[in-house]
Design goal:
It is built from eight helices and 18 strands. It has 353 residues and is of the alpha+beta class. It folds into two domains: 160 residues, D-amino Acid Aminotransferase, Chain A, domain 1 (2-Layer Sandwich), CATH 3.30.470; 166 residues, D-amino Acid Aminotransferase, Chain A, domain 2 (Alpha-Beta Barrel). The strands form two sheets. Strands 1, 2, 3, 4, 5, 6, 7, 8 and 18 form a nine-stranded mixed sheet that branches. Strands 9, 10, 11, 12, 13, 14, 15, 16 and 17 form a nine-stranded mixed sheet that branches. The longest helix is centred in the first third of the chain and has 14 residues. Bound molecules: 2-OXO-4-methylpentanoic acid. 2-OXO-4-methylpentanoic acid binds next to loops.
Length: 353
């Protein structure tokens, strides 16, 4: 793929790596590529990070025709840079594209573009403990048209953000509220796609939960409001009677790449993994009997985040005494060990820059 490069007039100062937070700081450059019906994807550029000019009628601003991904670049001990399962992110981006009637991108081109951008921006991959360069590929519909139709013009861009932990708690267990009023996704909807609207629809519930002292909500299925689905930013796992349970992918849950990695790591540790429908009432009953030994969420941004407390209506469940359980810790150590190149990578998930 051919692309043009526009040099920035002035590079930014790098931030204090001990105070990065998540997704607030952006690097000097971004990758952009345009799509036009009849022309396909064209005009690939690496250019200075800057605001876009968008027509106020751009369809993404009205009808949310957009998809995105989240992945990370990791600084290794020898000063190198690792990427983790990046091709899987671009494959999933295309799955989301199909659902949102957005033209797919060539995954090889996208990966090439990302690697070129990262070469330019290598100095931005942080090295402080638990920090990474968070990567956000996104496609938006840019047609200046108010009809509700698939757009004929799109913009694909990749931006980079040096980041620390997603939750201010870091790896410390979080409090999660089981949402029984709002729903996130329904059968036949867009729950499995990584599209902005899923997140917009979750914000109100998240706000209320936060006002009540919870970090996030755990969504139940949109039909019966009975089966555990996901926490918008993470897939969920529960250690029950020596088995690792996670909600089966059903079309309304994001098929997390970290979820898949955790399943494979757990299998490698001989931990039986059960993908199934998890009834929230059963979960709380098992919890009351002390049989839910651990709960944790998985996601690119969240990595592995232990859940210490769950609240469902008037029922409260404390899990692992509100501490990080041994399985969550082992999976976290193993996953991040592979990502940061501290451990061998038997699954061939990592590529170097
Ligand atoms: C990620 O984990 O990368 C996500 O995209 C979740 C998020 C909305 C921060």
């Amino acid at each position: 793929m051919e692309y043009s490069f526009t040099k920035s007039q002035q590079l930014k100062n790098k931030p204090d790596e001990s105070r990065l937070g998540f997704g607030r700081i952006f690097t000097d450059y971004m990758f952009t590529m345009e799509y036009k019906k009849g022309e396909g994807w064209h005009n690939a550029e690496i250019r200075p990070y800057a605001p876009f000019m968008l027509d106020p009628s751009a369809s993404v601003l009205h009808y949310s025709q957009s998809v995105f991904e989240g992945l990370k670049a990791y600084r290794t001990a020898d000063g190198g840079v690792n990427l983790f399962r990046a091709r899987d992110n671009f494959k999933r981006l295309n799955t989301s594209c199909v659902r949102l009637s957005i033209p797919e991108i060539d995954a090889d081109d996208a990966l090439f573009a990302l690697r070129e951008l990262l070469r330019v921006e290598e100095r931005w991959v942080p090295s402080a403990p638990d920090t990474t360069l968070y990567i956000r590929p996104t496609i938006i519909a840019t047609d200046p048209f108010l009809g509700v139709h698939a757009a004929e013009q799109y913009l694909f861009f990749i931006i980079l953000s040096p980041s620390g932990a997603y939750y201010p708690e870091g790896m410390a267990p979080v409090r999660i509220y089981v949402e029984d009023a709002f729903v996130r996704a329904v059968r036949g909807g867009v729950g499995f796609a990584k599209t902005g609207g899923n997140y917009a629809a979750s914000i109100r519930a998240g706000d209320i939960a936060q006002e009540n002292g919870f970090a996030q909500v755990l969504w139940l299925d949109g039909v019966e409001q009975r089966y555990v689905e996901e926490v918008g930013s993470m897939n969920m796992f529960f250690m029950v009677d020596g088995e690792l349970w996670t909600p089966a992918l059903n079309g309304s849950i994001l098929p997390g790449i970290t979820r898949d990695s955790v399943i494979r790591l757990a299998n490698g540790f001989q931990i039986p993994v059960i993908e199934k429908k998890i009834d929230v009432n059963e979960l709380f009953e098992l919890g009351a009997q002390g049989r839910v030994r651990e709960a944790f969420g998985t996601g690119t941004a969240a990595v592995i985040s232990p859940v210490g407390w769950l609240q469902y209506r008037d029922r409260a469940l404390t899990i692992a005494d509100g501490k990080t359980g041994p399985i969550a810790q082992k999976l976290y150590d193993s996953l991040t060990g592979i990502q940061f190149g501290r451990q061998p990578d038997p699954y061939h998930w990592v590529e170097t820059l």
